[in-house]
Amino acid sequence: MKQTIFTLLLITSIGLISCRKTSTDPNINQYDDTQIQNYIKANGLTNMKRDTSHGDTSGIYYEILSQGSTAGVKPLDYPDSVTFVLTVKTFDGKYINQDTLNLAHFDGLLGYVTSGSSIMGFTKGLQSAIHDLVKYRGTRARILVPSRVAYGVNGAGSGSSSNVNNRIAGNQCIDYYVNVLSSEPVYDDYLINEYMKKNGLTGYTHVTSGRANGLYYKVTTPGSGTGDVMEDVSNFTSNYTGKWLNGATFASTATDTETAGTTTLSSFTLGQLIVGVQEGLRGQTAGAAVSMLIPSRLAYGRGGNTGIGPNTCLYYDFTVATVTTP
């Protein structure tokens, strides 16, 4: 009986071994390349090139959409500071981030790209593609990054792999658009002007010198002209709304005071607010209504703030109720 059982186990083991197809199963390089080739074909990406900068080993494909200046400048290196905006999409379409107006920003050393930001997508593949392929500030590119230099077999995020927009499944290749900025102030000004055109905003004063350089503001209702004038030390109450340039509200009187639907006002000290708001409201009196389009350097700058990414332009409306200047 024991011999019969042993014989059956031996035959079963031989059968299982013979069924393994180790010689024909694709390795991860082959798997990634198949996924990318299929994606290129399905999306008609006829201008994609394969990265050969290190002997055709990265598996990255790319297209330079707009070349930045190369005259008299060195290519970007890992210790260099770099600022870029990007969009991120996994090949399965279950993770997409196109928020280039707020969170999909990076500002730091190129060698720290993998440290990321407040969204998923800051991968080793993206870092090496900017270093090896994009190379120069002012360049825009589309980059297809294989899973093995993205988030690998484990993926990223939380929850099930079927979750949308908070999970990147394992072995997912990523489709990026990257814009490496040559000048943050120039890019800010472009974004602000695009926002004004899109929303039909006119009559704004553009400040072109001094501390408020880059600010756009409009006094939609003049103040009463009586009482205290707004200075840095002034305390004031106001209704206000803060928006990203995609139109979404990130703060308002109601969210500050938790009194939505009431007339309770928010209270501020002017000198404690971001520079753009200080400059837009200085000199105003009670009753003034002021709209401001604020470049990122006059808002929360390179560091950003809770829920606000680095280098993010902002829109504010303030209607001042009272002003008290000590």
Could you list some keywords that capture this structure?
7-stranded antiparallel sheet, single chain, alpha+beta, 326 residues, 22% helix, elongated, Chitinase A, domain 3
Structure description:
By secondary structure, the chain is α+β, with helices and mostly antiparallel strands. It has 2 domains: 27-182, Chitinase A, domain 3 (Roll), CATH 3.10.50; 185-324, Chitinase A, domain 3, CATH 3.10.50. The protein is 22% helix and 26% strand. The protein has helices at residues 2-19, 28-42, 124-134, 184-199, 253-257, 275-281, and strands spanning 49-50, 61-66, 81-90, 96-97, 105-109, 140-145, 156-157, 167-168, 174-180, 205-206, 216-221, 235-244, 249-252, 266-269, 289-294, 314-324. Strands 1, 2, 3, 4, 5, 6 and 9 form a 7-stranded antiparallel beta sheet that branches. Strands 10, 11, 12, 13, 14, 15 and 16 form a 7-stranded antiparallel beta sheet that branches. The longest helix is centred in the first third of the chain and has 18 residues, at 2-19. The termini are far apart. 33% of the residues are buried.
Concise description?
This protein is an alpha+beta fold and 326 residues long. The protein has helices at residues 2-19, 28-42, 124-134, 184-199, 253-257, 275-281, and strands spanning 49-50, 61-66, 81-90, 96-97, 105-109, 140-145, 156-157, 167-168, 174-180, 205-206, 216-221, 235-244, 249-252, 266-269, 289-294, 314-324.
Number of helices: 6
Mean pLDDT: 90
Most strands sheet: 7 strands, antiparallel
Give, in order, the helices and strands. Answer: HHEEEEEHEEEEHEEEEHEHEE
What is the name of the CATH architecture of the largest domain? Roll
Q: Would you count the extended β strands for me?
A: 16
Number of domains: 2
Estimated helix fraction: 10-25%
Which band does the percent of strand residues land in?
25-35%
Classified by CATH, the class of the largest domain is: Alpha Beta
Low-pLDDT stretches are 4-23
CATH fold annotation of the largest domain: Chitinase A, domain 3
Q: What would you call the shape?
A: elongated
Distance between the termini: 101 Å
Q: Which class best fits the helix and strand makeup?
A: alpha+beta
Alpha carbon gyration radius:
27 Å
